Structures are given as structure tokens and as C-alpha cells.
């Protein structure tokens, strides 16, 4: 969310952000509504002031019965007028607030201008793409041959875009999540295991609501919803708090199961476990002081952290600078880390790293007292550490062996009792 004063004073900047972000937000309509609210607010305040004056004059009327009655009659008219205007003011103010949630953040000038992921700009590559001198298998075939997945029984119990991980794949996912947790916690990030059911204000806070509400599972009769990422829960944790600058930066490595409706993706990535309704993710989350330089420093650090993990998994990848039309409303800037998927002959997104300045903090009112005692909104950032089962796809495919087994990268072996290869159980 942007500051209301900023939008009033810089409508052109906001219109440019709307254009760059491919948003349908109408700044002129918003400002017209804002003027209506201000006008009505002025009327109500004037009437209230008159009401105060009037009650003073009634107090001073003393024995003058005629004067008292005329003042009381006047007071009744004022009260009736206020009774009519106050609900209108409340409704218009709420309408403006709901629109305020839809105003996109201004993207950093370093973000490529573009309309879709084709316009994202690769910034660096890492790792040699493996050359296979045997018939290459895709992740789903590999998993079936090694008896690592059961999609049929998953579909029986949970419908489409669900899966059962079996045997070494189940152990591999646990190993990956533990490995990610350990490596990021070793950098001083506080480990968290957070609720995957959260209240509406958390989803407004991170920006999932109102625009992405159709992606979220609601719980019948509850005031909570299933989160699509630990980012939602962590953002909500600090609502309405005023932190001190000595506490900042707060750095967290958070885990929770993630749930997504994936509305609008019918027919996309339906083979295997690339795009599923429930998955597990270890998340990096930073709350820092309201400084662009500090946000940029953390943005670079968070993507490097993810690169370190993917390099340890010996998976070739690239980092792309996400374009304005693909990054979404709240981002100032965003990197995606895309892992090489041999069977598709292309890089696929496995990590997403964003910084927001105070766009999220404003929505959920997270502030801090700076060195001069001034209270400001904090800046927030997040990045994926590991999301599984999607990461299994490049992991299994890049490390497949001619005999159909899969080599386990050194970094994961301590989490798998030293096991070096995934083989079929049989
Ligand atoms: N439907 C899905 N199925 C499997 N994995 C998914 C799905 N949606 C997202 N992911 C994984 O989760 C990662 C992060 O998702 S994200 O929406 O891009 N970004 C976030 O959630 C941020 N909080 C950073 O983690 C993705 O890069 C992908 O690896």
C-alpha cells in the first residue's frame, strides 16, 4: 500500500507505476473518491463543531425558555443531519481503503520494463548443464521407475494436482527442508515453524488479498485461511507493533506447509509435481529499517543465500531480474532463481526473491523507532530457501545415472544417513 499523501502529491508517479505493473488501477477515479471523502469529512467536522457551540449556548441560555427551545430544535436538526452524513462518510472511507490496497508499489528503475516473463532479464548463470550419453528420463518417469511417487492414490484421496511421495523421495524432501533450515539458520536467521492457517489481515498484509484472494483456500466457518507461503504468517506476526531500531534487522527462516488453489492454471504443468495444491517450503524473511540501500543489500543477500543452497545441490541455474509486468503489485524489485530442467531443455522457476520497501508494512502496520526516535514503517523482504516437491524435479533429473538411479549430492548425504544413491526399493 502506498501512503495516501504520496498518491495525492505524485499522481503521475503512481500512474506510471500502474502502467509499468500492467495494473487496471484508476488513479483519477481514486483521487475523485478521495476528494469526496475529504469534502464529507469537512462537512461532518463542521457540524460537530456547531453542535459543540450549540450545547455551550444552551448551557448559557439560563431561564430564557424561548431561546432554549429554539436552540434545542436547532440541535435536533444538526443531529439529524449528522445521522445522515456519518454513515456515508464511513462507507466512502472504507471504499477508499479497499481501493488503497490495490495501488501497486513503484518499481525500482533497475527493474526491466516488460509485460510478461519473456521480458525477464537473466543476470547470471551457474553450473555446467549435464550432458547425458543415455536416454534422458523426465522427473515423473524417474520417480515412477524408482517407486518414489503415487499419483493415482493421491488423486483418489485428494483429486488433481496432489501426490504421495514414497520411500527415498519422502526422505529426500525431509532432507532438503532440514538442509535448507540448517544452512540459513547458520547465517543467524531465526528458525520458525509458523501456522499455515492465518487470519485475513495477514493476507492483506503480505498483499495476497484482495487481488489474489481466488488463489486461497478458506476454512468453512473459520476466520482463518490456508496460507500459500510462510510469508503470509510471518508478515502478520508483527502487526501493529513498534520495534526498536536496535532489534533490526529481524531475519527469519520459516517453515510451513503451503496451500494454493492454482486457479487459472488449468492444463499447465499437469505432469508430475511441478504445480500442486499443497507443498512444503522453507522461507527466508527479513524486516529491516526503512532505507533503500539496506533493502537492496538484503535483496542481494537473500538471492545469494538461495544460490548457495542450489550450488550445494549441484543444480545448474540462472538468476533473472523480473520485469515490471511480471513481478506483481507489491514488489519494488524481484529476482527469480530458475533451475535447469534437462527434460524440458529450459530453466524453470524454483525460487522467488522480492523487496517491497514499506508496501507490506503499511498494510499490516509494522513500524519501528529510528535512531532519532522517529516512528516509521519498516521494510520487508522475502525469498524462497527451498520449496519441495518442485525442487525434486531439477535435483532428480540433473543427477540421474545411466542405470536409472540418482546420485545424491554430497551436501544432502548427512541428512540421509550417508546414502549416496537413490535406487528403487525392490
Ligand atoms: N503450486 C505450486 N506447486 C509447487 N511449488 C510451488 C507452487 N507455487 C509456488 N511453488 C514454489 O514456491 C516458490 C515460491 O513461491 S512464490 O509464490 O514464487 N514466492 C513466494 O511464495 C515467496 N514467499 C518466496 O518464497 C516457487 O518458486 C516454487 O518453487
UniProtKB/TrEMBL annotation:
Pathway: Aminoacyl-tRNA biosynthesis; selenocysteinyl-tRNA(Sec) biosynthesis; L-seryl-tRNA(Sec) from L-serine and tRNA(Sec): step 1/1. The record marks 384 as: Important for serine binding. One of its GO terms (biological process) is selenocysteine biosynthetic process. It comes from the Bacteria. Homodimer. The tRNA molecule binds across the dimer. SUPFAM superfamilies: Class II aaRS and biotin synthetases, tRNA-binding arm. Belongs to the class-II aminoacyl-tRNA synthetase family. Type-1 seryl-tRNA synthetase subfamily. This is Serine--tRNA ligase.
Amino acid at each position: 500500500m502506498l501512503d495516501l499523501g504520496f498518491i495525492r502529491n505524485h499522481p503521475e508517479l503512481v500512474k506510471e507505476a500502474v502502467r509499468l505493473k500492467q495494473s487496471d488501477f484508476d488513479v483519477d477515479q481514486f483521487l475523485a473518491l478521495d476528494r469526496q471523502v475529504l469534502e464529507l469529512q469537512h462537512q461532518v467536522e463542521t457540524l460537530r463543531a456547531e453542535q459543540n457551540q450549540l450545547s455551550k449556548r444552551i448551557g448559557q441560555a439560563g431561564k430564557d425558555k424561548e431561546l432554549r427551545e429554539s436552540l434545542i430544535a436547532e440541535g435536533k436538526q444538526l443531529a439529524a443531519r449528522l445521522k445522515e452524513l456519518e454513515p456515508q462518510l464511513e462507507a466512502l472511507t472504507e471504499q477508499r481503503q479497499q481501493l488503497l490496497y490495490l495501488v501497486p508499489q513503484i518499481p525500482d528503475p533497475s527493474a526491466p520494463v516488460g509485460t510478461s516473463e519473456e521480458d525477464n532479464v537473466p543476470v547470471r548463470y551457474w553450473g555446467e548443464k549435464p550432458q547425458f550419453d543415455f536416454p534422458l528420463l523426465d522427473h515423473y518417469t524417474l520417480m515412477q521407475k524408482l517407486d518414489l511417487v503415487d499419483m493415482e492414490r493421491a488423486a483418489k484421496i485428494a483429486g488433481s494436482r496432489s501426490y504421495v511421495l514414497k520411500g527415498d523421495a519422502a526422505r529426500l524432501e525431509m532432507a532438503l527442508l532440514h538442509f535448507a533450515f540448517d544452512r540459513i539458520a547458520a547465517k543467524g536467521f531465526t528458525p520458525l515453524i509458523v501456522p499455515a492457517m492465518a487470519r485475513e489481515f495477514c493476507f492483506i498484509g503480505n498483499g495476497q488479498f484482495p487481488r489474489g484472494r481466488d488463489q486461497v483456500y478458506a476454512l468453512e466457518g473459520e476466520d482463518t485461511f490456508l496460507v500459500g507461503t510462510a510469508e503470509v504468517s510471518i508478515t502478520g506476526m508483527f502487526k501493529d507493533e513498534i520495534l526498536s531500531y536496535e532489534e533490526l534487522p529481524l531475519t527469519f527462516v520459516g517453515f510451513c506447509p503451503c496451500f494454493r488453489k492454482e486457479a487459472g492454471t488449468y492444463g499447465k504443468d499437469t505432469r508430475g509435481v511441478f504445480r500442486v495444491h499443497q507443498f512444503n517450503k522453507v522461507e527466508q524473511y527479513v524486516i529491516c529499517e526503512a532505507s533503500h540501500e539496506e533493502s537492496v543489500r538484503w535483496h542481494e543477500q537473500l538471492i545469494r543465500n538461495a544460490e548457495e543452497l542450489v550450488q550445494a545441490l549441484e543444480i545448474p541455474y540462472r538468476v533473472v531480474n523480473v520485469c515490471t509486468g511480471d513481478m506483481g503489485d507489491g514488489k519494488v524489485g524481484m529476482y527469480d532463481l530458475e533451475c535447469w530442467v534437462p527434460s524440458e531443455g529450459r530453466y524453470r522457476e524454483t525460487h522467488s526473491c522480492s523487496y517491497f520497501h514499506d508496501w507490506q508494512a503499511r498494510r499490516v502496520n509494522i513500524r519501528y523507532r529510528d535512531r532519532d526516535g522517529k516512528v516509521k514503517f519498516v521494510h520487508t523482504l522475502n525469498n524462497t530457501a527451498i520449496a519441495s516437491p518442485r525442487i525434486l524435479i531439477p535435483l532428480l533429473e540433473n543427477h540421474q545415472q545411466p542405470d536409472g538411479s540418482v546420485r545424491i549430492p554430497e551436501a544432502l548425504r548427512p541428512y540421509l544417513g550417508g546414502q549416496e544413491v537413490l535406487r528403487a526399493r525392490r
